[in-house]
Write a structure and sequence with these properties.
The protein has 262 residues and is an alpha+beta fold. It has one domain: Endonuclease/exonuclease/phosphatase (Deoxyribonuclease I, Chain A, 4-Layer Sandwich), CATH 3.60.10. Helix content is 16%, strand content 30%. It is built from three helices and 14 strands. A hairpin with a 6-residue loop joins strand 10 and strand 11.
């Protein structure tokens, strides 16, 4: 949870994120729910398991953020975010988006407001990227929140994009003209909003069921100014649930200095 360490002379607050594509599997989703720790703050799920009642399974202590138009057709939802009850609802809110492939929230940190994007994009469409791009442009234009503090971005999820910037060189067979053109659009978005990649390059996030090949389809991007706050961003290969070929991106841990607050 975002936590002020009272006995720490540097007065820091921490934010812990957990990301996983559960492949619409109840088994994988249940495993994820059982792995969640009390100090996890935000769980970013792609291709969630949605029940016949149109709901996401979650344990007590977690609030579910669905896409804005989830109720229209729940089984088209491909991104859901869970927020720990320990995060005061006075510090965060969901952001309206016209897509079922992304969920976005704003979270007040000591020296900025963080816009956290949870996105799923299949390999045949960039519509959700365009939606996110438009939303980020809006906050970039606003520049500052009601506290007079700047907006910063974390964009994380399953992008289904291959590029030699993050994929291992041995996966050069994936760098087709079409794939590189697609990834180029993502890189334009990343560059336009001055985003960096806290998850180091060449760390795979998926092992394909069919071939066993390791690739990097999931990724994390953040505002340049936020990069120093990431004290850890890695993959937990041992925590991969059954029935999904994705690995959890966790822990993804940020630390903010309270002394930055004026």
């Amino acid at each position: 949870m975002i936590d002020t360490t009272d006995n720490n002379p540097t007065d820091t607050m921490k934010l812990k994120l957990y990301q996983l594509n559960v492949n619409k599997s109840l088994t994988a989703h249940s495993c994820l729910i059982n792995q969640i720790q009390q100090d996890d703050d935000v769980i970013l799920i792609q291709e969630p398991y949605i029940s016949k009642q149109g709901k996401l399974r979650a344990t007590q202590g977690w609030l579910s953020i669905y896409p804005t138009n989830h109720e229209q057709n729940p089984h088209l939802t491909r991104a859901v975010t869970l927020v720990n009850w320990s995060l005061s609802t006075n510090t965060w809110s969901s952001i309206v988006l016209d897509t079922q492939d992304a969920v976005t929230m704003s979270l007040q940190a000591p020296a900025e407001t963080i816009i956290i994007v949870n996105i799923y994009s299949d390999g045949d469409s960039m519509v959700s990227w365009n939606t996110i791009d438009a939303m980020l442009k809006k906050y970039t234009a606003k520049q500052r929140d009601e506290r007079g503090l700047p907006y910063r971005f974390i964009c994380t999820g399953d992008w289904n994009a291959h590029h030699h910037i993050w994929d291992e060189p041995r996966n050069s067979h994936l760098f087709t003209d079409r794939a590189l053109e697609r990834a180029g659009h993502l890189l334009q978005l990343v560059g336009r909003h001055h985003l960096k990649m806290p998850l180091p390059a060449f760390i795979p996030t998926l092992r394909a069921f069919s071939t066993g090949n390791y690739t990097r389809v999931n990724n994390v991007f953040c505002s340049d100014e936020l990069l120093p706050a990431f004290i850890q961003c890695t993959i937990d290969y041992a925590a991969q649930p059954p029935r999904t070929d994705h690995f959890p991106i966790q822990p993804c841990l940020l630390e903010f200095c309270m002394k930055c607050v004026s």
